[in-house]
Amino acid sequence: MSEKPRPKRRRRTRGATSGIETVPASPFVKRKLAFYDLLDEESVVALEAQVDWILEDVGVAFRDDPEALALWKSAGARVDGDNVRAPSDLIRELCRKAPSEFTQLARNPERSVVIGGHSQVFAPIYGAPFVRDLDNGRRYGDLDCFEKLVKLTYLHPNLHHGGFVTCEPCDIPVSHRHLDMLYAHMTLSDKPHLGAITEASRAQDSVDMAEIVFGKDVMEDHCVIMGNVNTNSPLLVDKVVTGAVRAYCGRGQGIVVVPFILSGAMGPVSTTASVTQAIAEAMMVCAYSQLVRPGAPFVLGNFLSSMSLKSGAPTFGMPEPVLSNYVVGQLARRAGLPLRCGGSLTASKIEDAQAAYESADSMHSTMLSGANYVLHAAGWLEGGLCVGFEKLVMDADRLGSYQKLLGQGLDLDENAFARDAYLEVAPGGHFLGSSHTMANYKTAFYEPALSDSENVESWEDGGSRDMRARANSRWKSMLDAYQLPPIDEATREALQSYVARRKEQIPIAWY
Q1: Is 36 exposed, middle or buried (0-12, 13-18, 19+ CB in 10 A)?
Q2: Fewer C-beta neighbours within 10 Å, C or N terminus of the chain?
Q3: Where are any strands of DSSP class E within 157-278?
Q4: Phi, psi of 95, rounded to the nearest 5 degrees
Q5: Among positive and negative, which fits the CA dihedral 31, 185, 165, 391?
Q6: E strand map for 280-429
Q7: How many whole angstroms separate alpha carbon 361 and alpha carbon 322?
Q8: Within 10 Å of residue 73's Cβ, how many Cβ atoms?
Q9: Alpha helix locations (H) across 96-238?
Q10: Where would I find the H helices in 336-388?
Q11: Which segments of 429-488 does DSSP mark as H helices, in order?
Q12: Which residues, at least 6 apart from 501, have a Cβ–Cβ distance to it below 8 Å?
């Protein structure tokens, strides 16, 4: 297994009429666009001073985990009950041990992704208990839906990473479903993915199954799997988080830590205060991860949302969380840590105008803020309670435009100046048939697969279908074109044996 991705190749598998590219042209975005730094130096220093005050004077509780508290005491932190306070320079020194950029290997080396630096990686929604499509409406997710969503994520060229719980397979016992989800990601796709975190044993199963795929020697030196955890804001880290950190980072694997803050509930009704709280919580867990194993990959996450103070419901695409994306991005770069933000977020129940506006504003700020790993980049509906099959492919379609904007920017080579075209076309002439146009027309502009730019007569002749209907046809065509990615048969059998053995050992529980 090579640490670096192999040279990128375009390979296409097409159905009779689908025209669907089933393998990505690039496994992640190599950003050329400049980062958007919202704040001046004075403002950044003021925010960092607030972070330091929280670290030193307020502290973060590490609850129900004596092992974590003992490790903090040995590092020189002040531990009062379960509350941990530490000098800010100690926390920042520990955070500097985490890599600012690392590679997560995929089962297929061509799909390995770089997280951090100038790279951006898009992954689908995570954690939705419900699914929705035009044919069957809203319903609980099941294993069949989960496997279809894994396949769609694998097939789409604009999704680089599988995530993990694309939907909850609610027909499988809670105590067993992580095994089925891991097996699906490891066999139905060959893109990188996350592992389970809800219990230490499930995190351990994730790492152990990853070892079956990649081998112990590879895992000693390379990240092949990560866990994604939320702090229990405000200012609380529970044993789910610390247990996951020990399981993943203890084996040299990655951890993504995301304070989930609704301002007004888990943080003050102040974007400034909530941002600094989020940074303090994440940095404390980052420091803890480096106490567990120096150099373990860490991603600083941000999921800060405003809320309706009338109903208590979270709101998305609003100016406050948009601002938080920009500011957290700037602070994460100052701390030298890779950044995770949310992506195409909306409170809408279906793929309507509200979903489009809110998702676009959320995703645009995520993009400009420099988020290196974007979870929820596609499929999110209903505040994250539901994944839409149509929404997944609609969002992923738009991700292609961000890929081109981020990864290409403005070309300044000889071809881009098109001087040969000016010499060929007379004043008052037309460039449409020029040699330059004919040589570049296939790649000159991004063409979204789901947008209809034809005239109204052609649209009416085609059945007057809106984007939801076109997306419905597209995800079905994609699944029709799906082909199982190759996997070593001995590896598959070893995974099957592991899953079967663990299901025999783990009592069935539905909660």
Answers
A1: middle
A2: C
A3: 194-195, 226-231, 236-237, 254-262
A4: -65, -30
A5: positive
A6: 298-307, 314-315, 339-341, 373-374, 380-381, 386-388
A7: 7
A8: 12
A9: 143-155, 174-188, 200-214, 216-221
A10: 353-369
A11: 435-440, 456-461, 467-481
A12: none
**What is the pTM for the complete model shown?**
0.93
Task: Please state at what angle helix 389-407 crosses helix 467-481, rounded to 10 degrees.
Answer: 90
Backbone φ and ψ for 249, nearest 5 degrees, come out as -65, -30
Encode the chain (511 residues) as per-residue pLDDT tens digits: 334 343 333 333 333 334 455 555 678 999 999 999 999 999 999 999 999 999 999 999 999 999 999 999 999 999 999 999 999 999 999 999 999 999 999 999 999 999 999 999 999 999 999 999 999 999 999 999 999 999 999 999 999 999 999 999 999 999 999 999 999 999 999 999 999 999 999 999 999 999 999 999 999 999 999 999 999 999 999 999 999 999 999 999 999 999 988 888 889 999 999 999 999 999 999 999 999 999 999 999 999 888 777 777 788 888 888 899 999 999 999 999 999 998 999 999 999 999 999 999 999 999 999 999 999 999 999 999 999 999 999 999 999 999 989 988 888 999 999 999 999 999 999 999 999 999 999 888 888 889 998 999 999 999 999 999 999 999 999 999 999 999 999 999 999 999 999 999 999 999 8
Q: What six digits make up the tokens of 379?
A: 């499929």
| 493-to-183, 212, 219 alpha-carbon distances in Å | 11, 10, 20
Handedness of CA 22, 168, 377, 135 (dihedral sign): positive
**Which residue shows structure tokens 């991700």?**
399
Contact 388, 346 (CB under 8 A): no
- Secondary structure of residue 96 in the 3-state scheme: coil
How far CA 106 is from CA of 156, 210, 467, 498, in Å, comes to 16, 10, 33, 20
